[in-house]
Amino acid sequence: MHTIFQLFLSFLKIGAFSFGGGYAMLPLIEREIVTTHKWIHYKDFIDIIGISQMTPGPIAINSATFVGFKTYGILGSLFATLGVISFSFLLVSLANHYMKKFKESKVLEFALKGMRPALIGLIISAFISLAKQSYFDIKSIIIGVLVMALLLSKKIHPILVILLSAVFGILFYG
């Protein structure tokens, strides 16, 4: 049996140990919410990621809000969202206070340089995990390739990409 406090603690852990933004958090969210606690099914997780990308705001906060709502309603949304932002809020508050002192620190510079490749690894891991569930037939692969080609060649806006993907889905699957 899970509790709303466990939900808060799970998202606190996700927020505390995820660096590099929402996409880097996805593997941790998946492991904690889908695999460990089984609060939602993987299909629901993918849907939540899609909705989180389409709604305004950071994907990690949106994901926490949606997962919280799915598990405990409005109160769950509040606890999950507070959990995911609490550590960052404290860290940014402390960093702001001490940043001037350590601004020229080589140790901090080297630590940040070391974290960058790890962040890319986390994002690639999230991509692979989502791709395994999202590319289930030739039509979904075609949509993915078309969207990637448009993004790389035309630099079109992500909202337009989402709308085009919906149109492709209606045309291919409707």
Summarize the topology.
Elements: H1 4-17, H2 22-36, H3 42-54, H4 59-102, H5 106-134, H6 138-154, H7 158-173
How does this model look, in words?
- The structure is a single chain.
- This protein is mainly α.
- The chain has 2 domains: 4-134, no CATH class; 136-174.
- It is built from 7 helices and no strands.
- Helix 2 packs across helix 4, helix 3 crosses helix 4 and helix 6 runs antiparallel to helix 7 (158-173).
- The longest helix is centred in the middle third of the chain and has 44 residues, at 59-102.
- The chain is globular and about 55 Å long.
- The N and C termini lie far apart (40 Å).
Jot down its keywords.
single chain; about 170 residues; 2 domains; 7 helices; about 85% helix; CHR_Transporter
Count of individual beta strands: 0
Largest sheet: none
Number of domains: 2
Helix run count:
7
Percent in strands: under 5%
Distance between the termini: 40 Å
- Average pLDDT number: 86
Radius of gyration, taken over Cα atoms and rounded to an integer in Å: 18 Å
In brief, what are we looking at here?
The chain has seven helices and no strands. The protein is an all-alpha fold.
